[in-house]
Each structure stands twice: as structure tokens, then as C-alpha cells.
Amino acid sequence: MKGGQGLKKELVIVGMSILLLVVGLSGCVQEETTVENRPPVANFVFAPELPIVNETVYFIDTSTDADGNIISWLYSFHDVFDTSPLALATFGRNVEYVFDKPGNYTVELTVADNDGTNNKVNKTVTVSTTRIKRGPTANFTYSPSEQLQVNQTITFTDTSTEGIAQIINWMWYFGDDSGLAYENTTTHTYNESGFYTVHLRVRDTNGRFGEMRKFWYIAEE
User: Which of 37, 17, 43, 42 shows the shortest CA–CA distance to 119?
Assistant: First the structure.
């Protein structure tokens, strides 16, 4: 454009996109820049996962913002016994809280980024009067499932169920002094006939264990 025509800038907001237009006096429109803001993704974890009354619970922020910075965190503790949830709001990225009564509580985290966009997530915290132990329950199957024989390859498959945490470790003992195996599915061959006990021990991310033993006879070929 020539010097005498001048420029007019218009800011057009469409959804989450900000479009800056340069308009000349002649009426022509040129797109100068486009800036798109992506909202943050709110998330948090807490420990212990199954707290008891009057135990300190730690809430750790794991929120992310792909195109900016999160600058504000607000935790709201919706106590089922309290008629004023606003009184239970706490600012801070990582906070602590003590529940003084048992029950199910909704904890909500609201985050805001440096572009003024916010997002929130809520999770349920179950508070008990005594410690709940929910470790894994160990179990397994084997194949073939009929008469087992010497020098036969037997496949052992873990069918354990998780408690409140993921199972991450398996340990098999086959009862014949042949050593241990550490996979969730493994194979084994017995070289002699006799009675054997197979022992499976599993461990989860919280360090809780589950065990299962099965007893059978290995026959001659």
C-alpha cells in the first residue's frame, strides 16, 4: 500500500483462534498473523490412594499446557459433611489436606494458563477409619491341563487380578530346584517324576504381594 492510504487493524476472535487482520483504506484485507490458544489439561495424583481419617493426603499437580504456562491452581474439597464447599478451597500447585471424617470426597482441581484459559478435573477420594489393604490376588493356569509328564513343556500363564495398583513383578518357583522365572507367562520342563508345588508370587506398584501355590504329580513318560 502507498503511504497516503493508511492501515486499519481489526482483531477477530473466532472460538479459541485470534485472527489479526490488516485492512487498508482501499478495502483490501491482508491476514497478518494467527495465534491459536490451546487450553491446559488439568490432572493430579494423590497419596496415599486409600487414606484413613486424620491422615495427611498429598495432592500433586500433573497438569500440562502445550502452548503456554499454567499460572493458577485451585483445589476444592467437597466434603459431604460440610454445607459450604467454598470454605474448603485451597490455592497452590501441590497441597496437603486432612480428612477428619470417613466417606467419599470429590476433589476438584481447576487450573488456568497465562492466556486466561482454564480447565478442571475431579477425582474421588475414599477415606476410611481403618487401613484398607487391597493388594493383588495371585492366580495362574497351566497347559496342557491333563496328565503332566516328564520332559513335557508346560506353559504357565498368570491370571492374577490387581487390587488398587498395577502388577509389575512376577516370580515363579517350580519346586524342583531349577531356579526362578520372572515373566508373567513362562514355560517349564520337569526331568523327574514326582509331586511338585508351583509357587507364583506377584507384586504391585504399591509394594503389596499376592501368592498362589498349586500342587500336582508329574508322571513318567
Answer: 42
